[in-house]
Every structure is written in C-alpha cells, then in structure tokens.
Design brief:
The protein is an all-beta fold. 0% of the residues lie in helices and 48% in strands. Strands 1-22-19-24-14-13-12 form a 7-stranded antiparallel β-sheet, with no helix packed on it. Strands 2-3-10-5-8-11 form a 6-stranded antiparallel β-sheet, with no helix packed on it. It has a 4-stranded antiparallel β-sheet with strand order 4-9-6-7, with no helix packed on it. This is 5-deoxy-glucuronate isomerase.
Length: 272
C-alpha cells in the first residue's frame, strides 16, 4: 500500500473513544501538520494537552461540547452526515492549553494541528460564519467551506477547508502544488486530505507527484481514508455516480496559500 495512504482504525481505543486516524511527525513525512480523527460514543470524553501546537476542533458529525478550561461551547455541530453539504461548527484552541471534547450524541471529531509558539485567544468558529465558495467550471467544479483561511488572524499557521466534488468532476485540478518556500511566487504548505464518499462504497483516485517524480503515487482512496501530501501536485478524480467530500489541513513556515499549477496542464484554465 502507498506510504501516503492511511486506512481508518475501527477498534475502540478507550471507553467510548476510537482514534480513527492519528497522523504525527513520528509516523509520517509531515513536519508542520498533525491530524487526528476521533469517534465518540454518547457521553464519552476526549482530553488533550496541546503543548506547542495549535488545534482546530471540527465537529464533523454529531454534537459535542468543547472546553479549554476557561470557556465552554455547547451543542456544537450541525449535521449527521457531511453530505448534508452545510457548514459545521469548529473551535480554535491555541498552544499551551488543555481542551476537552464531550459527545452529546454519537460524534466524529476532526482535530487539525500545526506548530505554534504565540498563544492566541480561543475562538468559536460558528457554522453561519463559514464562507461558502464555488470554484471551477466544466468537469472541474467543487464547493468549498472556508473555515480557517490564510487571511484569517484567528490562527498562527493553520488552514482548514472542506471541499465537495460531484461525481464525474475533478478537484485540486489542474494539478497544483505548494512545496517551495519561494514567496511571492509559491509558499511551502504540507497538507492532509480526509476523504468521505457518498454512497459509502465509492472511491476516488488521488495522485501525488513532484516535478522530478521522486514522489509519484496514484491511490485508490475509499471512505474514511487519509492521504498525506508532504510535497507535489495532488489532483483528485471522482467517478460518475459518487460524490466526494474531503477536509484539508495545511500548514507551513508561513501562513500564505500561494500555489503553482503544473505547467503541462495549466492550459485547461484558458478553455472557452
């Protein structure tokens, strides 16, 4: 199996808590991004001390309560399935804090991390304040929920978005990359993709490749999988009949999303 493709864990880790994914610098090629997916049974509690990491806590599905020991936010979450295609609630918690997440009902929580030294205020990112954007044309259409962007001062390094791509369309396309610390032309941002499919038995194809092909992997990605993008171009193709959802986390030395299209395929942007 590809070294960039992670399959979900389904075994309960502790009472009512299942760590579905846990991507760290110790078990992946990523330095600036950590990523975790946690399933919680009703009433189950997950607690974590952040140290020198900031975290965006996403109420992916179900309802949760979140506290950083100073502020508490209750009944977060807006959907039972990501394919309701509406934004959800998140909470940003800065470094050197401890947070707790308690499930009101069965919930899936996504935890998005990047290194952080400067402590910022905890912030509730309400679903109604998440920007919704439609990108692309022809067979390159997708809908984006912008939760933490590079223009958002709520976080030091984190960028977090959700992307919906209908069947028969391509996303992250034409192939683009952001693996050079060469501003203003391109920024260096590592990235993770957490994928879901509708119906669940579907799959998508994702390729990750660099100009010199030192990385060149094409993966069949199934529901609940995570794809790591330490560098390179990373397009996603969605077969007819299935809709794609993915949640992206990006982080790097500078909080700017400046990408570079693959010159061999950039011509498609000029089609009339």
């Amino acid at each position: 199996m590809s070294k960039l493709l992670r399959k979900p864990n389904t075994e309960e880790t502790s009472a009512g808590v299942t760590i579905v994914h846990d991507v760290t610098s110790g078990n992946s090629p990523l330095e600036y991004v950590r990523f975790k997916v946690v399933d919680l049974a009703p009433g189950a509690l997950y607690k974590e001390e952040l140290g020198k990491w900031e975290c965006c806590i996403v109420a992916l599905t179900g309802k949760i309560n979140v506290t950083d020991q100073e502020q508490t936010f209750e009944n977060l979450g807006t959907r039972e399935s990501v394919f309701e295609k509406k934004p959800t609630d998140s909470v940003y918690v800065s470094n050197d804090r401890t947070f707790e997440v308690t499930a009101v009902n069965s919930a899936r929580v996504v935890l998005c991390y990047s290194p952080s030294e400067k402590q910022l205020p905890t912030k509730l990112i309400k679903a109604e304040n998440v920007g919704v954007e439609h990108r692309g044309k022809y067979n390159n259409k997708r809908m984006v929920h912008n939760m933490l962007t590079d223009s958002d001062s709520s976080a030091n390094s984190l960028l977090v978005v959700e992307v919906y791509t209908d069947g028969g369309n391509w996303s992250s396309y034409p192939p683009h990359k952001h693996d050079q610390d060469n501003l203003p032309h391109e920024s260096f941002l590592e990235e993770t993709y957490y994928h879901e499919m509708n119906p669940r038995q579907g799959f998508v194809f994702q390729r990750v490749y660099t100009d010199d092909r030192s990385i060149d992997e094409t993966m069949t990605v199934e529901n609940g999988d995570v794809v790591l993008v330490p560098a390179g171009y990373h397009p996603v193709g969605v077969p007819d009949g299935y809709d794609s959802y993915y949640l992206n986390v990006m982080a790097g030395p500078t909080k700017i999303w400046k990408f570079h299209n693959d010159p061999a395929h950039e011509w498609i942007l000029d089609r009339k």
